[in-house]
């Protein structure tokens, strides 16, 4: 297991720092701010508003701290959208790590503690009901090796930065994500690297460069067109 330390980001929310990689799990400008902006508003809310969706199948690359899962569960609860959330992770956190994270306090909703705990205590490899509107499946595997006949409406692509983990951003993995998405499915990520945009276009995505969360100019949303 890699060594990980909890640090506080600029919006007061925690993230994890991995000394071996010299990398954090989220933006140091604000972990909760970043997740809300990139994945919830630009991904999930876009799907719900523009496709008039009342359900969403989400595939997340990098479960990590469970922050995106928590925010998505809250979104499902507040908007009565039915979500099936599948997330993949190679190095799950230990209880001592996730139980020290302050996300439930920061997002500040009535049952956030309970949801966060249920998300982390859910068994791996099997669908598990966190809320009647939020079904979670946590997969312990490498995203590169994952095979499923299921299709998804959104991919939250939340791997470590291309400079730290380049193999997570290569064509092979992007091809896999393309295959997991429905036509019209949405790929969102915090990176706006030129090579990523070119690769997504060559795979048949329509790519938008959008403003990033505080501290970051741009991010990418791509919609599968073929
Ligand atoms: C940027 S962090 C995750 C952020 C996470 N979504 C969160 O909110 O905490 C990247 C995550 O990807 C995981 N990871 C690294 N390599 C992976 C792989 N090959 N397949 C799946 N997950 C991987 C890391 O262990 C880490 O938890």
Write up this protein.
The structure is a single chain. This protein has one domain (32-224): Rossmann fold (3-Layer(aba) Sandwich), CATH 3.40.50. The chain is 32% helix and 29% strand. The protein contains 7 helices and 11 strands. The protein has helices spanning 31-50, 67-79, 95-98, 103-107, 112-121, 171-180, 194-203, and strands spanning 5-8, 14-18, 23-24, 55-61, 82-89, 128-131, 134-140, 152-157, 181-189, 205-211, 218-224. The strands form 2 sheets. It has an 8-stranded mixed beta sheet, with helices on both faces. Strands 1-2-3 form a 3-stranded antiparallel beta sheet, with no helix packed on it. A hairpin with a 4-residue loop joins strand 2 (14-18) and strand 3. Helix 1 (31-50) packs across helix 2 (67-79) and helix 2 (67-79) packs across helix 5. The mean pLDDT is 96. The site of S-adenosylmethionine has 18 residues, from helix 2 and strand 5.
């Amino acid at each position: 297991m890699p060594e990980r330390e909890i640090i506080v980001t600029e919006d007061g929310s925690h993230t994890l720092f991995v000394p071996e990689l010299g990398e954090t799990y989220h933006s140091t400008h604000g972990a909760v701010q970043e997740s809300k902006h990139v994945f919830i508003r630009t991904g999930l809310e876009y799907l719900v508003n523009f496709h008039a969706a009342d359900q969403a199948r989400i595939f997340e690359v990098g479960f990590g701290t469970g922050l995106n899962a928590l925010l998505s569960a809250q979104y499902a609860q507040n908007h009565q959208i039915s979500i099936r959330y599948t997330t993949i992770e190679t190095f799950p956190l230990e209880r001592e790590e996730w139980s020290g994270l302050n996300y439930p306090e920061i997002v500040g909703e009535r049952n956030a503690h309970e949801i966060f705990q249920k998300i982390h205590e859910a068994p791996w490899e099997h669908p598990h009901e966190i809320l009647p509107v939020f079904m979670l499946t946590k997969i312990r595997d490498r995203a590169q090796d994952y095979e499923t006949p299921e299709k998804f409406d959104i991919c939250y692509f939340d791997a470590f930065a291309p400079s730290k983990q380049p193999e997570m951003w290569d064509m092979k993995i992007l091809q896999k994500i393309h295959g997991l998405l429905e036509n019209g499915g949405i790929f969102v990520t915090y990176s706006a690297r030129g090579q990523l945009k070119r690769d997504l276009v060559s795979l048949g995505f329509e790519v938008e460069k959008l403003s990033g969360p505080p501290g970051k100019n741009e991010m990418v949303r791509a919609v599968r067109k073929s």
